[in-house]
Design brief:
461 residues, alpha+beta, Pdz3 Domain, 2-enoyl-CoA Hydratase, Chain A, domain 1, 3 domains, six-stranded mixed sheet, 21 strands, 33% helix
Length: 461
């Protein structure tokens, strides 16, 4: 019944509501570790809490054999089951027994569960001596604070221009997006407004002097950028505050109110639409009751060529209004989503099935390699040194090739040779993530990122 209303109204059962709330609240109760299941064994990857894994006493590559005195290796345990075992009431204890390379006996740990943050700002670092980069993966209750910490840190390092990466960010809390946009938009200018059939218009405006109201700004968006991401991109574009680079955003501009039910579940019902300051409706058109077709939007864009060619973008024919930016009077487009100022096509050459599958093997391969060869990386005190000096050797790539053959059952020699540098960059990036966290991953991976490289080139003009 709810699905027949519109694409975003939904019923959330009680068992799912807590998980949905955690993502938006920005925290959960548990021990804050990231793991991977390799060969039916849980492998510790890294810490996601304020505690380092060294402080916990666990090392990357350690195998978790028991949780609370129960064997969890070799029983075909699932990710959901592991999460269920490790999470629990704050202050309670979870017992973990791990197997470490070079140690015969199991090592036992008693770890006290605590409130663990779910990080929504993946990275914030300097691309060069004046250009900062911040990547946001969702908009939760803590996103504004996380963003400000990164922004102030970059300001202290001499940042005078910023690239804000909102690709594949599905949105979240409206207020988090407004707070971040307020750091860019001056005066009491409008950031976004909501309006519905029986929902009075409500304006959200800049309220204070922002930290980055001057200085060159580029916002990256793609077909996975939605909702709160589109609010920021739309405001930046409409006020001519910065340049939008990438591909047309998803077009999710419906506002939901949540109604809690006495069975522990909730209804999220659409009550209004988001509009950018120039009046553009962010929501793309949809057929009522045709949620399946709406959910297939990205595949449709791919098949129509929109992701590869800006000339293939089909705007809503019903939206014939001409929109103009509010400072320079540039023409901008309605019809759903935010159209970038500079289009960057999707590189489909790496959509070959073998390349996709090879990339999927890399995280586990890198975690395992780091766990077995940790001493090899002691000569890299920071990510800049690692980025300059560490390369994937022929021996390591041969080891990766053997892993591919073991896991996939075959190796496409032609594609492997063609994409060697691309795949080797991801191996380096996942190893750097072990060493330095997310701020280690992104500086390495940027070498393969056409959209980010385009933004860097635009910054230099």
């Amino acid at each position: 019944m709810i699905n027949s209303l519109d694409p975003h109204s939904s019923y959330i059962p009680a068992e799912e509501l807590k998980k949905v709330a955690e993502n938006l609240q920005g925290n959960f109760d548990g021990i804050g570790v990231e793991f991977a299941i390799i060969n039916d064994t849980i492998i510790f990857v890294t810490s996601i809490s304020f505690l380092t894994h060294e402080a916990l006493g666990i090392r990357a590559g350690d195998k978790i054999i028991e949780i609370n005195d129960t064997t969890v290796a070799g029983i075909k345990i699932t990710n959901e089951q592991v999460v269920g075992e490790l999470r629990g009431t704050r202050g309670s204890i979870v017992k973990v027994a791990i197997q470490r390379r070079g140690t015969k006996e199991l090592i036992h740990f008693d770890i006290i569960r605590d409130k663990i943050p779910i990080i929504s700002v993946d990275a914030g670092y300097m691309l060069d001596d004046k250009t900062g980069y911040i990547k946001i993966n969702r908009f939760s209750a803590t996103t504004s604070d996380e963003f400000m910490q990164k922004l102030l840190a970059l300001n202290q390092q001499g940042m005078s221009q910023l690239i804000l990466d909102l690709r594949q960010n599905p949105g979240g809390y409206l207020n988090a997006a407004v707070d971040i946009a307020d750091e860019f938009i001056s005066g009491k200018n409008l950031i976004v407004y909501t309006e519905g059939r029986s929902y009075r218009r409500k304006d959200y405006k800049a309220r204070r002097t922002g930290t980055f109201e001057e200085g060159k700004l580029i916002v990256l968006v793609d077909e996975g950028s939605a909702s709160a991401s589109e609010i920021i991109a739309g405001a930046v574009q409409d006020w001519d505050r910065g340049t939008i680079i990438g591909r047309r955003s998803f077009g999710k501009g419906l506002v939901q109110d949540q109604y809690d039910l006495n069975n522990g579940g909730a209804l999220r019902l659409t009550v209004a639409r988001y509009h950018t300051p120039s009046g553009r409706c962010i929501q793309k058109p949809y057929e009522e009751g045709n949620g399946e077709d709406y959910g297939d939007e990205i595949n449709k864009r791919y098949k129509h060529g929109e992701l590869q060619n800006a000339d293939s973008i089909k705007l809503d024919d019903a939206d014939t209004t001409t929109y103009r930016t509010l400072v320079e009077g540039r023409e901008v487009f309605g019809g759903g989503g935010i159209m970038p100022d500079i289009f960057v096509p999707l590189d489909t050459s790496r959509f070959e099935t073998f390349v996709i599958r090879a990339r999927s093997v890399i995280p586990e391969f890198a975690y395992k390699y780091y766990g077995e060869h940790g001493a090899e990386f002691k000569g890299y005190p920071d990510v800049q040194t690692f980025r300059r000096n560490y390369q994937v050797s022929d021996a390591l790539f041969a080891h990766f090739k053997a892993e591919l053959k073991a896991q996939l059952g075959f190796v496409d020699e032609k594609l492997l040779n063609r994409e060697r540098q691309y795949l080797a960059t991801f191996i380096r990036a996942y190893i750097a993530r072990q060493l330095y966290g997310s701020d280690g991953f992104y500086p390495i991976i940027q070498d393969t990122d056409d959209m980010l490289l385009k933004a860097i080139a635009e910054m230099k003009k």
